[in-house]
Amino acid sequence: MDVKSAAIQVLKQAGKALHAKDIAQQIITDGLWQSAGKTPDATVSARIYSDIKNKGDDSAFVKVGPQVFALRNSGEMPISDGLVHKAVEKPVESASENHGFSFTQCAQKVLENFGNKKPMHYKEITQQALQQGWLVTAGKTPEATMYAQVITEIKRQQKRGDQPRFVQHGKGYVGLSQWMKRGLAYQIEQHNHQVRKALHERLLAMKPGEFEELISLLLAEMGFESVEVTKLSGDGGIDVRGILVVGDVVRIKMAVQAKKWKPKNNIQAPVVQQVRGSLGVHEQGLIITTSSFSPGAINEAAQPDKTPIALMNGEQLVTLLMEYGIGVKSSTPALFEIDDEFAIQDLSV
């Protein structure tokens, strides 16, 4: 049995979120999987992280805390104060269909179908999602979880220089950014879009050695330690090596290949196989490219019973560079909006 299948079985039996160490220990105790490595919990954690990153909302897993995972259809969702909130995130479109909508997906569906291009209060959004059967939760405060998920997404996308799909209007009201096709916020997004294009063009103009140095800098900003660019020849296709440190607890050796390719040249499956064959003992693989990946490469990277290879395409690379302020400068103006509930007569009390 592969690690992910074994982890799913252990989490189903536990019926609650577990730390990666507990998952690994139970997997080995039950004889579901054996590891010759000294840190099986790191392997389990890396496989689950990789699955979440590659599949997103389609992953069977959800991260609810540092090195703590649960099953998406019966897991626990974090709320804004850092506590863990019991929730079954298995919404359904109808009695016969299950689309697995997340809280934020439900928020978008409600706003599109019932918002009439006007903001709605997060409590109303949550209640409408529950009534439509799009959101099923066993939690006692689904409204708090809904609002926390939406606000977290807004902050994350703003940090990356993207236009969030949601807009916070104050006093708990939320709208969709697609309704706002004018104004300063829209102009900022259009400007950042051009910056992303220019940054990508500069990446393509770099020399191979310069590009590898840039990748090493990004990895260091992302939390990697002992980052080192390998020799330009005889490295077996590996350009950078480092150790990914997660929560000062898990340390994962990573071997990175950096491919500065034009957008039309997608990475193919043989490249993924080459990287996997070049990995050292207990190493995980990562391919970073300015282009993209073919379906065959994506399938090869996620092959069961093989060392997973993480993939970062050009769009993701540019997004991370902007998020960590590499190659760009950030200026954050304060944006003010008139409160529609404000009235002049309120001042004459």
What does this structure look like?
This protein is of the alpha+beta class and 349 residues long. It has 3 domains: 3-72; 84-179, no CATH class; 206-323, 3-Layer(aba) Sandwich (Trna Endonuclease, Chain: A, domain 1). It is 40% helix and 18% strand. It has 11 helices and 13 strands. It has helices at residues 3-14, 20-29, 40-55, 103-114, 122-131, 142-159, 184-205, 208-221, 269-277, 295-301, 314-323, and strands at 18-19, 61-65, 68-71, 76-78, 84-86, 120-121, 166-170, 173-176, 224-229, 240-246, 250-259, 283-289, 309-312. The strands form 4 sheets. The chain has a 5-stranded mixed beta sheet with strand order 9-10-11-12-13, with helices on both faces. A 3-stranded antiparallel beta sheet has the order 1-3-2. Strands 6-8-7 form a 3-stranded antiparallel beta sheet. The longest helix has 22 residues, at 184-205. The model is unreliable at 75-99 (pLDDT under 50).
Strand order of the largest sheet: 9-10-11-12-13
CATH topology description of the largest domain: Trna Endonuclease, Chain: A, domain 1
- What is the N-to-C succession of helices and strands? HEHHEEEEHEHHEEHHEEEHEHEH
Helix count, DSSP H or I runs of 4 or more residues: 11
Strand tally: 13
Radius of gyration using CA atoms only: 22 Å
How far is it from the N-terminal to the C-terminal residue, by CA? 71 Å
Low-confidence stretches: 75-99
- Category from helices, strands and their pairing: alpha+beta
Assigned CATH class of the largest domain: Alpha Beta
Mean pLDDT: 79
Describe the global form: globular
Compute the number of structural domains.
3
Question: What share of residues are in beta strands?
Answer: 15-25%
Main pleated sheet? 5 strands, mixed
CATH architecture type of the largest domain = 3-Layer(aba) Sandwich
Helix content: 40-55%
